[in-house]
Fold this sequence. Notes:
The chain is 31% helix and 24% strand. It contains 17 helices and 25 strands. The strands form 5 sheets. A 9-stranded mixed sheet has the order 2-1-3-4-9-8-7-5-6, with helices on both faces. Strands 15, 16, 17, 18, 20, 22 and 25 form a 7-stranded mixed sheet that branches. Helix 7 links the parallel strand 11 (244-250) and strand 12. It is globular.
Amino acid sequence: xxxxxxxxxxxxxxxxxxxxxxxxxxxxxxxxxxxxxxxxxxxxxxxxxxxxxxxxxxxxxxxxxxxxxxxxxxxxxxxxxxxxxxxxxxxxxxxxxxxxxxxxxxxxxxxxxxxxxxxxxxxxxxxxxxxxxxxxxxxxxxxxxxxxxxxxxxxxxxxxxxxxxxxxxxxxxxxxxxxxxxxxxxxxxxxxxxxxxxxxxxxxxxxxxxxxxxxxxxxxxxxxxxxxxxxxxxxxxxxxxxxxxxxxxxxxxxxxxxxxxxxxxxxxxxxxxxxxxxxxxxxxxxxxxxxxxxxxxxxxxxxxxxxxxxxxxxxxxxxxxxxxxxxxxxxxxxxxxxxxxxxxxxxxxxxxxxxxxxxxxxxxxxxxxxxxxxxxxxxxxxxxxxxxxxxxxxxxxxxxxxxxxxxxxxxxxxxxxxxxxxxxxxxxxxxxxxxxxxxxxxxxxxxxxxxxxxxxxxxxxxxxxxxxxxxxxxxxxxxxxxxxxxxxxxxxxxxxxxxxxxxxxxxxxxxxxxxxxxxxxxxxxxxxxxxxxxxxxxxxxxxxxxxxxxxxxxxxxxxxxxxxxxxxxxxxxxxxxxxxxxxxxxxxxxxxxxxxxxxxxxxxxxxxxx
Length: 610
C-alpha cells in the first residue's frame, strides 16, 4: 500500500469482527490497515483515525489483552467497538462489570444525543447487533452517554473534547441498520481521503501474486464455489492459465448432481484445464467411526493435502517449482482462531495444522485471504465471471460432511429440566412453547467466543408469526447459557406435538449423505421457486441424529439465512405455510421423522451447525 494514501488503523483484539471493520471502512472507499494490539504509539501517529475492535476476552480477566493508554492523547479520532468500548472505559477510569443478562444478536438502540458519530442519525430507535455479556457500569471523566439499549444504559458514549467515541454493539455488521452511517460519520470526523476501490485491490493483488509466485506454477483446489473460482480467475489474470493446474476433488459430500453441474459451469466460465479426482471411497473410509466435528474437519483438510501430494507425485511435479493455491477468505481464518487473541470457533479445512505449516514456509498462495464474501463477489464481477456463479449460494469446502451431524451417544444438558421449566413458567401466559432441550450440541459464537451448546426445540400451539418468533429466539439464547440455538417444529410424521424423542447414533455413511442430498435438493428447489426477492443468502440443510415420536430415524433442519459477509446473519422469514408443505415433502424421504426451522441469528449460532 502506498504511503501517500490516508489510512484508518483497526487495532485487532482477535475478534471475528476486527477484519469486518476494515472491510466496512474499505466499502467507504478509505484505506484501512489492521494492526496488532501491541502496536507502538509512534506507528499510530501516522493514521487519520483509530478503531479499537472487539475481542473474546473480558477486560477484567487477569490476562486480558490491553494497549498503551497514551493512544487516547494522540489527538486522533478514536472509535472503540465492543471490547474496544469496554477497554477504553476501563483504561480512562471507568468501570466494567459482569452483566445481568447478555446481549447476543438483535437489540434496539436509542439515539439520545445527535453528536459525534451519531450526529447524522435521527433521534429514534434503530435495530443493532450486539454480542457481549460484560457491560460498562461507570463512565470515565469527560464522557457522556449518547445512546442506549434496553439492557445497556451506556451502549454509546462520547468525549467530544478528545474526539473519542465508543459503542457496545457492532456497527460493522450488516444487520445494524445504522452501522454504516455511524462508520461513515467517523470517517468524516477523521478527514481521511476516499481512494480505495476493488480495482485498486485487484491491481495490487496481481502485483503481489507475480512477486510471491515468481517463476513457479500454482496447484489450485477448485470447488466450483465463489471463493475458489474467483481465486482461480485472479491467479490466471496474474500468471496465465498455462501456469495453473486446477483440480476439483469429488469427496462424495457434494449436493445431488453437483459434480457434473460444477464441471459444466466452470468450463462455461472459461476454465479449460479442470481436472476431476474421484475421492469418494477414500473419504468415507477415512471418516468411518468419526463423530467429533473438529476431527472431521481435520481429516477432510488432511485428505485434501494427501490427494494433492498423490496427484503431484503421479504428475511428477517438482515441489520446488510449484506452490499450492487456495480460495481462503478472511472468515475462514478468523473462525479458525487465526489471529493473536482470536477464539477458535471451528477449524476450516483450509486451516488445519499442516496447511498452517505450509503457509509459514511460503508454500501457499491465497489471493483472497483478506476479503469477505461481498468483496469476493465484487472482484469476481470485475474479472468477468458469470453472474450466476458469482452470486451462487455459499457452500462449505467440506460440503455436506459438516451438515450431517454425527453422534455416538447422547449429550444431555444437565440444566435441561430447569431451562424447560423456566420457559414454561415465563411464557405460558402468552404461549405454550412446549420447549425441549435436545441431547445434541452445535457450534455457536457468543461474545466473540466459540460455544458448543444445545438447541432448544419449540412448538408454539397458536403463534407461528415471524414477529413473535423473531423476538422469542434471542430472549431464550440470551437468558439460558446452555442453549445457543432455537429451532421450530415444522412437521412430524405421527403427531403435531413432540410426544417422544431419542438419539440415533451415526457417523458419515453413504446412506446418511444420500438421505441429506435428497432433502437438500428439495430445499434448494424450493428456495429457487419461492425466494423471489433473493432474501436467502445461504440455506444449509442439516441432518440431525434425532428421532421424533419414533425410534431409529433422523430429522432435518432448514437453516435459511440473510447476510452479505457471513460474519453475522439473520434467519430468513419465509412463507410459513409453504414451508410446512416443503416439510411434508421432506418427510416422504425414508428415515426422516421430523423437520425443523432454525430461528437463530448469528450470533449466537453460527450459520453452519458444525
